[in-house]
Amino acid sequence: MKITHNFYAFLAIMGFLLSACTETPKNPSLALSAPPSPPLDSNLQAFLDDYENYFADSLQLTGTPGAALVVVKDSQVVLLRAFGVKSAGGHDPVDVHTLFRIGSLSKGFAGVLTGILVKNGLLDWTEPVQKYCPDFSLKDHQQAERVEIRHLLSHTTGLPYHAFGNLIEEGFDREAIVSQCFPKEKLFGREGEFFGYQNVAFCIIEPILQAATGKSYQELLRQYIFRPAGMANASCDFETMRLAQNRALPHHPTETGWQPDTVSRHYYDFAAAGGINASITDMGEWLKVLLGQKPAIVTNGTLDEVFRPFVKTGKERRTLPGWIARDSASYAMGWRILEHGTDTLVYHAGFVNNYHSEIALNRRDGIGICILFNANSPMRGACVEAFFRRWEKSLFHRNCCAPPSADTSRAVLSDVRS
Fold first, then answer.
1. Of 121, 234, 336, 392, which cross-links 282 as Cys (Cβ 3.0–4.6 Å)?
2. Coarse DSSP helix, strand, coil percentages of the chain, rounded to the nearest 5 percent
3. DSSP structure class, residue 327
4. CA–CA separation, 32 vs 399, rounded Å?
5. Can the peptide bond before residue 38 be classed as cis, meaning omega within 30 degrees of 0?
6. Are 306 and 289 in contact, with CB atoms under 8 Å apart?
7. Nearest-angstrom CA–CA distance, 373 and 356
8. Fold of 5-113+215-412
9. What is the pLDDT of residues 224-279, one digit of tens each?
10. How far apart, in Å, are the Cα atoms of 129 and each of 137, 160, 197, 208, 296?
C-alpha cells in the first residue's frame, strides 16, 4: 500500500513535539502496571513517574498502537509497563509478557554470546573467519583471509553499507548470498578500518559458533543466555512467533493511521542480525545481564570486551541526531557506543517487519532502558534521548550517580527536540 507524504509529514511533526509533552496525570487506561518492590527512593520514583507521564502522553500524541517499557536500576526492575493494544482497532491490550520482534537488538545478543564463548576458551575474537568458514571469500582474496571474527561483529569486513539487504527481503538464504555475492562485491575499505553496517556478513557468526561448539545458534542462545537469565518468553524462530497467543502485530502507516500487518519470515534465517522475539519482561532480565548483575552468565570483564569501541561510525547516518555528535559514536561487538559529555551509553535500535525497538544503558550509573513498539513510531530515538536528559536532571542522579567532575550545567538542558 502506498504511504502518503501527508502521513510522513504527520510523523515528522509528532517526532518534533514528543519531548515537549507537558507533565499530565497518567491515564490508567493506557498502561498495565507491575509495581516495583520494595519501595523506591522518592527521588528515583519521581524521575520514573515523570518519564512514564512523558511516554504515555507521547503514545497518545502519535497514536502509536502499542508499546512496552522497562527500566532497570542496578539489579532491580524499577519500571515495567505495557501500553495500548496488540492490533490497532482491537481491544486486546499489550501486557508485560506480550511478544514483539526486537530486530537489530538481536545483534547485542550475538556479541555477548560470542564473548561468553571466548571467555570459555572455545574461540577467540581475532581468529580468522576462514578457520571456521573455509568458503568465506571477498573480491580481494587476501582481505578475506585477514577478516577476523571481531570484524564481522563490528561491521568492518570492508563490505559496503547494507549490501545485499534487499536479497534478505526477497527470501535468499545466507549461504547463497555469501557464496554468490560476496566474491563479486566491491570493497570500500580495509578490514577493521571501514565501518559498513552489514546484516548478512554479521550473521556469519552463526555458522562460526556452530562450528566451534557443535550446537546451533538457537541452542547456544537458550543455553547461555535465555534460560539462565530467566527470559522465559524469548525465542528466535518464526514458528514460535506465528503460533504465540500473546503477540503484538506489526503496523504500517496509511492515510487513516496505523494498520496491522502479518508477521513476516524475513530475518529469522538471519537470527543474529534480527531474529529474536522477546517480551518486555524478558528485556528487563537482559538489562540486568548487560549491567553486570548476573556474573554467572557473563562477567564484567567480558562485557568490557564486548562494549569496547572498535571503530568510529562518523561517516554513517547520524545516531540520535541533534544529541549525539557524529564523531562521538562508535561500534563495538554488536553494540553502538555513544559518548555524551562525561557519560558513555551502550545503545542499539532495531527495525524489522514494522516493529521498532530501542535499548540503552549507562553502566557507570547502573541504569538501563528498553522500549518495544509494534510500529515504526515517531517516538523512536526521541524516547531514549528524553529518558537520559531527564536522568541527568533528576535529583536522584545528582545525589547518587553524577561524578564529581561532571559539568553540572548540563542539568539545565531542555528536553529532546528531534
1. 234
2. 40, 20, 40
3. G
4. 31
5. yes
6. no
7. 5
8. Beta-lactamase (3.40.710)
9. 999 999 999 999 999 999 999 999 999 999 998 999 999 999 999 999 999 999 99
10. 10, 18, 18, 7, 28
Three-state secondary structure string covering 382-411? HHHHHHHHHHHHCHHHHHHCCCCCCCHHHH
Q: How far is CA 214 from CA 15, 110, 112, 257, in A?
A: 46, 17, 18, 47
Supply 156's cell numbers: 568492518
Q: Say which residue the cell 500473546 belongs to.
A: 246
pTM for the full predicted model:
0.88
pLDDT tens-digit map of 130-163: 999 999 999 999 999 999 999 999 999 999 998 8
Spatial strand order in the sheet of 329-331? 31-33, 76-84, 66-73, 367-373, 355-362, 343-352, 336-340, 329-331, 311-312
Are 276 and 234 spatial neighbours (Cβ–Cβ below 8 Å)?
A: yes
Q: Residues 16, 323, 351, CA angle at the centre, nearest 5°? A: 70
Place of cell 528524553: 386
